[in-house]
Amino acid sequence: MAVSVAKAGPYYSSGEIKFSSLRSNFRAQSRRQSSGGSESFSTDNNPISASQLRRNTTTTNTSPVVPDAAENSSISTSNNWKTSQFRNSIKFYYVILPSSDDVTNFDIDAQSWNTNLAKNINKVMFIDGICGSNSVSSTAASFNATAYNLTVDVYGSILGAGGRGGGTSGAPDPSGESGGDALSMASSGGNNIVVSVRTGSRIYAGGGGGERGNTGSTGSNGTCYEYYYINQCSTGAPSCPGGWNQISSGWGCCTWRRGCAVARWTRTCERTYSTSGGAGGAGGTGGPGRGYNNQSGSLAGAGGSAGSSGSGCGAGNGGTGETGGDGGDWAKSGGNTNNSGNGGGFGRAIVGSNYGTTGPFNDSSVVKGTY
């Protein structure tokens, strides 16, 4: 990761320091509008006094002429002011994530701010590269510190993680996992903290994982029939064994002595029992949501497994499990199935508080998700 620092300055490392130059560098200058841009100057020929060039330490001042900064600590805030105090002074402070960088879980406040976050110098975090997250438990980029006059200027991409499909490794079951947030601006205090987006940039929340498919239906039960036959000679009529039902009978003469002395008996006995239908197949796992960890892969849920065979005597086979729900696209919920859970919810583009926004936030190609 080649994060770099740039400054409007340092000014006056050597040579004469003129009031006209101080006026140009500190009163008439606006901050650069891109990480690779140059400082822009506006014409201002109005007089400037030493009192206007004192270092301003008021944190609520959003546009100090001479800002408070670690580099400006030599500049007086009171009457003992002199031009020599402006050696190596600065007007703006920039931290740049270049377009060539693709990083995960980028910590904005952990960069090289030289203690200037809590000072009123106007600061810009240029995000020209890609910030992403592979886990919904962490954001792609985050800020959690006290700051004054800080702009997070997004020219590149901040991409939340997609949720895992229900039933997949590490995910809930059967519900899909909710998508991850893209940017966290959980400032612990400060003033004038702004997130700026540019046309062509992306702050995208992750999509939710699809719900696992329902288990297939159980096959219908079958009925088995067993038969037991009696054919015997006896003086008394035989009966079917316990648990068997007689479904037919007959008799004839077995021994003849002036009539039928011993009868021949026939009986047909029947018993039935049920067999179980096959178990339903497992439902297919839910599809993964769209996210930094799934930027172009399939969102489709997996097909269900085939049911098992019935246990004979006409028992039906189990039904095939339901196909898992599809994962959600950027900032979309995962698909539901007939299972008992639900598709995972979607993440947010920005979470936190104490920040403002500027730029085309209403452009759905730039920002996907709430903020």
Give structural attributes:
1 helix; 20 strands; rod-shaped; 371 residues; mainly beta; six-stranded mixed sheet
How would you sum up this structure, described in words?
This protein is mainly beta and 371 residues long. It has a domain at 222-275. Helices cover 2% and strands 29% of the residues. The chain has one helix at residues 19-27, and strands at 4-7, 29-30, 40-41, 92-97, 102-104, 106-107, 122-127, 130-132, 141-143, 146-154, 157-159, 183-186, 189-197, 202-204, 222-234, 245-256, 260-275, 350-353, 356-358, 367-368. The strands form five sheets. The protein has a six-stranded mixed sheet with strand order 1-4-7-10-13-19, with no helix packed on it. Strands 5-8-11-14-20 form a five-stranded parallel sheet, with no helix packed on it. A four-stranded parallel sheet has the order 6-9-12-18, with no helix packed on it. A hairpin with a 3-residue loop joins strand 16 and strand 17. The longest helix has 9 residues, at 19-27. It is rod-shaped. The model has no long low-confidence stretch (mean pLDDT 95).
